[in-house]
Fold this protein.
Amino acid sequence: MQKSTGKVTSVSESLVGAKILEGAVMNGEVAYIVLEDEKRLKAEVIDVKEEGNVFLQVFEDTRWMKVGDAVEFTGLPLTVKLGPGILGLVTDGLQNPLYELGKIEWFLERGLEVDPLDTTKKWPFTPKISLGDKVTGGSVIGSVPEKLFEHKIFVPFSLRGEYTVEKVMNAGEYTVDDCIGVIVDDAGNTTELTMAFEWPVKIPMPFHQRSVPETPMPTGIRILDALFPIAYGGSACNPGPFGAGKTVLQHSLARHSQADVVIIAACGERAGEAVEVFKDFPKLTDPRTGKSLMDRTYIVGNTSSMPVAAREASVYMATTVGEYFRKQGLNVLMLADSTSRWAQALRETSGRKEEIPGPEAFPMYISTLISALYDRAGVEILEGGLTGSLSIIGTVSPAGGNFDEPVTQATLLSTGAFWGLSRALSDARKYPAIDRIDSNSKYPSLLEHEEVTYLLELLRDGQTIASNIILMGEKGITDDSYIRYQKAELLDAVFLQQNSFHEVDGVTTPKRLRLMFNMVKDIIDTPIEIKGKQEIRSHFNFIRQAFLDWNYLKPDDKEFEKQKNKLVNLVKLRSHVEENI
């Protein structure tokens, strides 16, 4: 196939105009711009105009690029290479492994490309097909062990129709690029199979059979698991002002969620925060397996200090890898931080293309793109009844914490759970600072529906009474109302608030969540005969401290049951203390 060529006609930061000299190009095609020093900068065709004029977005720094530079079109869309060796990688938005690039140059040079998968490592391959078998795109032809999982090797998903296995290699060690089989179609055309294949990042992988997300995914974060859960295959958005705890929340989700594979897309996050992930995650121990957390993690790093055009690529790259592991029959969690900066990159590109702007200068089609991204989440029922899922959680950083801006609103319409972070809560050091009233979820909780309603009603009552206290003071409300208010504050302090940096309190198992809920409910339901605001406040302060001390004890600690009994007795004893005693 003859490739098209062209030359640069204009440069506006990451947006480059080009004139086609030979051949034809399509929207979404990858191209390389060749500079004077022979460096080749990767780009993507984003608009095709009349008379052979096209616009490209360049994924790298365009300094020293000039009119007249050569453009080489590949005829292929932007793809991701899928196969053994992805887990544990840290790559940029174009799937270049950052640690390998770092071995070549201390500072990342433009135009450098490294194969994302180790092409020298040999994997112990076990075939699962025989000569004469019929296969189609997506059929499993074998497997290799990779870290914690059995990594299935597929016939490339892009192949259509039925094929016959003409050759299959015996069990043994092969690299990802070695031929492990040959298949032939009805016309006699042969296709060599390897352990790796490529898939266009902007085309969703087709579902074999889609199912409704209905099984709650334990996250270890009490306020989410109890009140605002996410299901396997579900989607959630996490908007909030700067400094409200979005990144820490995502780190907790990455470490403690009961997902098989975690994918982190740092799509425009501040470099300092993203580098912390790159440095710390390889050193962390997975609390579930006792092994390295990176054994089930893949990180795509495209920070705010990197070219804006690659932010879009990094989001789609991470999502496509997530879909691939869903095809493996695994539960995948993809965390995107932050989709606002991805949307800002789209706004910059749209402005340079001189498109008609939508609200706040975002593209008119921004809601369509956001909806299409979250629609790639879901539960898939595979052949043989095996189930895999991809859950997507995106953080949103609206300017000034304004949830009415277009990106937040489009995300709200596209996701099943809304975890709105509150500036007031973060200023009060109440973490996670997820708004207890405005947040919501359509997914089932680890608690019963009636129990969730019970908690939310208490929180709403507490907020109403708190507003009355601000207006009228404590003397302006009855003792019964003040007790109700203190119960809501107790629920918030000991159940909804959580110390992410504490070894024990940082993660709560479903079993412990149930135990804590039962204890909180017993305290709330216990009649209080105390009179006087000061005595009521003193009563709940004692209980609050005893409960917090219990939160920090491990279940196998000999003090655990002792502190629990102490708390029970304290509630019974102090609930009947008479006034002024």
